[in-house]
Specification:
- By secondary structure, the protein is α+β, with helices and mostly antiparallel strands.
- It has a domain at 2-50.
- The protein has one helix at residues 30-51, and strands at 2-4, 12-15, 18-22, 27-29.
- The strands form 2 sheets. It has a two-stranded antiparallel sheet with strand order 1-4. Strands 2-3 form a two-stranded antiparallel ribbon.
Amino acid sequence: MLVDVSDFNAFEVYYDGEYAGALEALVTPTTRINARAQQTAALMDAQQAEARPVAPPRPKIEKPKARPMPTEPIPYQPSQPIQTQPVQPPADETIPY
């Protein structure tokens, strides 16, 4: 199979979204285009392998174990003790109306 064009500079070739230049001649076999694509893919794979970070792997984080849930009612315990004033009887024993 051939790619036959009138102006080979008018057609741009892209491999995996990367610009690979123009066609080489007015008549270009598809096998040559495919071979260039394979070479470009191998080069891109090699560059990607070199670009990988070399940081040491992180240690695996273990989830903390949950405390068992209580099975009994939990009594109310205020965070601060409640301070109350003793009840003062009225100064006179009369009831105001």
